[in-house]
Write a structure and sequence with these properties.
Layout (H helix, E strand, L loop, with lengths): L2 E3 L24 H22 L7 H16 L13 E7 L2 E5 L5 H28 L1 H14 L1 E3 H8 L13
Antiparallel strand pairs: 1-4, 2-3
């Protein structure tokens, strides 16, 4: 995470964090995508924990998580439906991302895709909730700093996250 801000940008209200992904990395494992789903669902999970309900501010997060989960199911073979792609590639859209055409897929398979997509997103939400509950005092400290300063740079955020960041291994892997 590069920075966190509570200042809205145009119509975007719900996205307070942004991940700076390694631009050279073209291969992602299932575990990488599951972590990405968990991070994407963290805002919605935090709203649910803090206010006992979600607002419309999480719309973009829910949309992004659903799209990623659906791609895991239909394009990457990363689901309980097995190591298959489902549907036909219909078009190159943006930066090489392809859309899966599902119009030729049967209703039973579409129902299975929807159920598996929902399961992946709900599992990510559960993981996010677990992490948030374990570290709620850190979430609370970050919220208070954001209320006071409106944004936090990467080092300020790293300092606040230090209590819940695992120690990194030394050169010997210890």
């Amino acid at each position: 995470v590069h920075a966190v801000s509570i200042v809205s940008r145009g119509r975007r209200l719900g996205r307070a964090t942004s991940l700076l992904l390694d631009r050279d990395r073209t291969v992602l494992r299932r575990s990488d995508l599951e972590r990405q789903l968990t991070v994407t669902m963290a805002g919605a999970a935090a709203e649910q924990e803090a206010f006992s309900e979600m607002s419309t501010a999480v719309h973009e997060d829910l949309h992004s998580a659903t799209q990623l989960a659906r791609s895991m199911v239909t394009s990457y073979g990363m689901s309980s439906l097995g190591p298959v792609t489902i549907g036909e590639r219909s078009a190159e859209v943006f930066l090489g991302a392809a859309l899966q055409e599902l119009s030729t897929v049967g209703t039973t398979t579409l129902d299975a895709i929807d159920a598996e997509t929902r399961r992946l997103v709900e599992d990510a939400s559960d993981r996010a909730t677990t992490v948030l509950r374990e570290h709620w005092s850190v979430v609370d400290a970050i919220a208070h700093e954001l209320i006071e300063h409106e944004s936090l740079a990467d080092q300020e955020l790293a300092d606040l996250l230090a209590p819940c960041t695992p120690a990194t291994a030394n050169a010997d892997g210890v």
